[in-house]
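Two folds, back to back.
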Amino acid sequence: KFMDERNVVINPEFIEKRIVHFGERYAGTIDALALIDGKIGVLDIKTSQAVYRDYNLQTAAYMEPLERDVKNLETRWIFRIDQNQVCLRCGTTLRTKGGREKIKIPFPRKGPVCKEEHAWSEPRGVIELKEFPFWKEDYAAFLAAKGLWEWENEFWLKRIGYAKF
């Protein structure tokens, strides 16, 4: 329903597609290349509690090698899908993922937290789509983080014949 309402079109050739940047020596797999609201970009799907800033490094790394092959590539999105339950008495949320339960008390509190068992609602879906059109600075940050990782792992990278050392 969300995809139809936002007029999201996914390019089937770019679903779970391996992206390689030989010059900078990294690779990754994009979730999808999409057309949303008339713009072509990388669509990365997350099942998290929020859209975290470090996702921008990942999606920026996809943009650089894709820009050579995809005409009119201009943006990237994080499509966050989550599910939780809310206590009908106190507003606390329950998020179950991977067999683990996380309970989060609302801040600021709007009343007392239940002293007995919570009265959980039915699970509700949470959907968020955030666009990040300016990727060049994030790409520079990605390369800096990669360089730090290479520096930290120099010993092991030499042992496997990593070309930089």
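---
second:
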Amino acid sequence: MVDLLPLFPLPNVVLFPQVFLPLHVFEPRYRAMVADALSGDRVIGMVLLRQGEHESHEPPAIYPVGCSGVITHCEQLPDGRYNLVLRGLERFTVEREEEHPHGYRRAKVKVLPEPALTAREQIIVAQHRTTLESLLAPITSPSRESIRTAAMQDVDVVNALSQYLDFEPLEKQALLERPCLRTRAEALVELLEMRTLLARTPGATRTTH
């Protein structure tokens, strides 16, 4: 039998590999999902609901590319709700879905491995990281968090910024779907450059495609 990955679809959350995500779980079906995950490998899959469609479809439509995460911390509250922390593992694409008897969704998924970068691509990513740091400098202040970030590998910096910066969910989903670290870093630079431009242009508005 093919193992099926439990899915946790949300309208505004995108998880990236090796990045931490706090979650509060209160719906009964997802409490059951967490309980089942804790009794097994502790892994669930985060997927983004399609905007404007999750209220008119049953089950709600999702984007096919998501990210699995392992539960690294779990607190069960007296009323049965959970506070969790997930650590992102691997990107995946949904191949086939089915519903669990407890009401939550599961899927057969295909892992989307991060391609190894060539030496030239590694240099390009390092250059993008330098650009990202210069773009972020005017809007962030020195802190212990930024000091810790300075010691992170390029892949972790790109993924963490993709998840934690205040982008629209569709923008984050587009970053997650980028085929490799180099293209994700390029897209992240473009988003921050656009944000910087809009901040300098009175009356400008941001549009999401």
